Amino acid sequence: MREEMPYGTEEGEGEEVGFPNNTHKRLVVVGYALTSKKTKSFLQPKLEGLARNKGILFVAIDHNRSLSDQGPFDIVLHKLSGKEWRQILEDYRQTHPEVTVLDPPDAIQHLHNRQSMLQAVADMNLSDSYGKVGVPRQLVVKRDASSIPDAVANSGLTLPIVAKPLVNDGSAKSHELSLAFDRYSLQKLEPPLVLQEFVNHGGVLFKVYIVGEAIKVVRRFSLPDVSKRELSKTAGVYRFPRVSCAAASADDADLDPGIAELPPRPLLERLAKELRRRLGLRLFNLDMIREHGTRDRFYVIDINYFPGYGKMPEYEHIFTDFLLSLVQAKYKKRSG
Ligand SMILES: Nc1ncnc2c1ncn2[C@@H]1O[C@H](COP(=O)(O)OP(=O)(O)OP(=O)(O)O)[C@@H](O)[C@H]1O
Ligand SMILES: O=P(O)(O)O[C@H]1[C@H](O)[C@@H](O)[C@H](OP(=O)(O)O)[C@@H](OP(=O)(O)O)[C@H]1O
Ligand SMILES: [Mg+2]
Ligand SMILES: [Mg+2]
C-alpha cells in the first residue's frame, strides 16, 4: 500500500480495499515480470480495469534495472525462466521480506521436473468417502533408450505408455509428448523421460485452477481411450501435440454424464489445500482425470505453475480478490 488512492468514481466506487475504519485506502502495487505472451493472456483490459477500481495497480518490472530500485511493490507476480532471474528474486525476497513474491522460486522449481512434480500427490495418498486421488504408475529413465523395454517390463508398467520429457521448463520441447503402443518401440524414445501408464478417462480431463484458496474447475477434451483391441493391433510411438488448450474446452459438449461429472467439491478442496501446503504455491493448476468406468478413482497427471488464468471463468474477480486478501492479511498481522 503505497500512495493515496487517486480515484474511485467508476464501478466499485467506495468499495473498501478492506482496511478498518476506511483510514488506509491505499493503492496495492503489483509488480509483474512475465513474458509478453503471458502478459497478453493474463493482463487483459478487463482485469486491469477491475483491479484499478479495487485499488490495485499492475506495474511492469524493468529487467534492466535493479528490482530494489523499482516499486515499491506490495506483491511481485512472476513467471520467467532462468537461473539468473531466480537468483534476483531470491535476493529480493531476502532484502524485502515485506513484499509477497508469488510464488517463491524454489517452490516453483519443484514443478520443473515431472517426477518431483507429482510426488506431493503420491505422498498425500488422498482417499475418503468422496474418492481416491493418485498418480499414474510411472518410471523415470535418465539415459540409455535401449534399456527402456526391459526397465518397463521389470517395473510392471502396462502399455500404452505416455512418455513425457523429465524437464518441464515451459519450453516447447518440454511439451513434446508421445504415446508408445508396444514394448520394442520404447527404444525410439529420447531420455531423460518420465514414462507414465496411460489411464483411460473417456477423453475428457478436468483442469483445476487454484488461486490462493479459490478453486475453479473446467472440462477439456483430452486423448481418447485406447481399447484392448486397439492396443493389440497398434505398434509404434506416436507424438501428440498439446491437447489441453483453450480451443478444446469440453464444458458445453454433450457428454456421457459419468465422464462429464466434475470431481466432488470436498475432494478438490482437500486436495488443493494440502497441495498448497506441500508445494508452498498459491498459483497453479492441476490436470486431473477420472479412470473410465469408475465413479471416484482420480489421477493427477500434470501440475502447472501460473497457468493460463485468462481461460479460467471469472478469473478477474477471483484474482483481484486474492491480491487484496494478501495485503489485508499482512495489514492485520502488522496491526494485530
Ligand atoms: N497418464 C496419462 N493418462 C492419460 N492421458 C494422459 C496421461 N498423461 C497425459 N495425458 C494426456 O496428455 C495431455 C498432456 O499431458 P500433460 O498435461 O502431462 O502435458 P503438458 O505438456 O504438461 O500439458 P500443459 O499444457 O497442461 O502444461 C494431457 O492433457 C492428457 O490429455
Ligand atoms: O491453462 P492451461 O491449459 O494449463 O495451459 C497453460 C499452460 O499450462 C501454461 O504453461 C501456459 O503458460 P506459459 O505460456 O507461461 O507457459 C499457458 O499459456 P497462456 O498463459 O498463454 O494461456 C497455458 O497454455
Ligand atoms: Mg497438462
Ligand atoms: Mg504441464
Automatic annotation (TrEMBL):
Residues 1-20 are annotated as: Disordered. Mg(2+) 2 binds at D302, N304. Pfam families: Ins134_P3_kin, Ins134_P3_kin_N. Its cofactor is Mg(2+). Its EC number is 2.7.1.134. GO terms for cellular component: cytoplasm. Mg(2+) 1 binds at D287, D302. Residues 127-335 form the ATP-grasp domain. Keywords: ATP-binding, Kinase, Magnesium, Metal-binding, Nucleotide-binding, Transferase. ATP binds at residues 114, 164, 196-207, 222. Binds 2 magnesium ions per subunit. PROSITE patterns: ATP_GRASP. 1D-myo-inositol 1,3,4-trisphosphate binds at K38, K79, H175, K207, N304, G308. GO terms for molecular function: ATP binding; inositol-1,3,4-trisphosphate 5-kinase activity; inositol-1,3,4-trisphosphate 6-kinase activity; inositol-3,4,5,6-tetrakisphosphate 1-kinase activity; inositol-3,4,6-trisphosphate 1-kinase activity; magnesium ion binding. GO terms for biological process: inositol trisphosphate metabolic process. It is an enzyme of class 2 (transferase). It catalyses: 1D-myo-inositol 1,3,4-trisphosphate + ATP = 1D-myo-inositol 1,3,4,5-tetrakisphosphate + ADP + H(+); 1D-myo-inositol 1,3,4-trisphosphate + ATP = 1D-myo-inositol 1,3,4,6-tetrakisphosphate + ADP + H(+); 1D-myo-inositol 3,4,6-trisphosphate + ATP = 1D-myo-inositol 1,3,4,6-tetrakisphosphate + ADP + H(+); 1D-myo-inositol 3,4,5,6-tetrakisphosphate + ATP = 1D-myo-inositol 1,3,4,5,6-pentakisphosphate + ADP + H(+). Kinase that can phosphorylate various inositol polyphosphate such as Ins(3,4,5,6)P4 or Ins(1,3,4)P3. PANTHER family: INOSITOL-TETRAKISPHOSPHATE 1-KINASE (PTHR14217), INOSITOL-TETRAKISPHOSPHATE 1-KINASE 3 (PTHR14217:SF39). Monomer. Belongs to the ITPK1 family. This is Inositol-tetrakisphosphate 1-kinase. It comes from Prunus avium (Cherry).
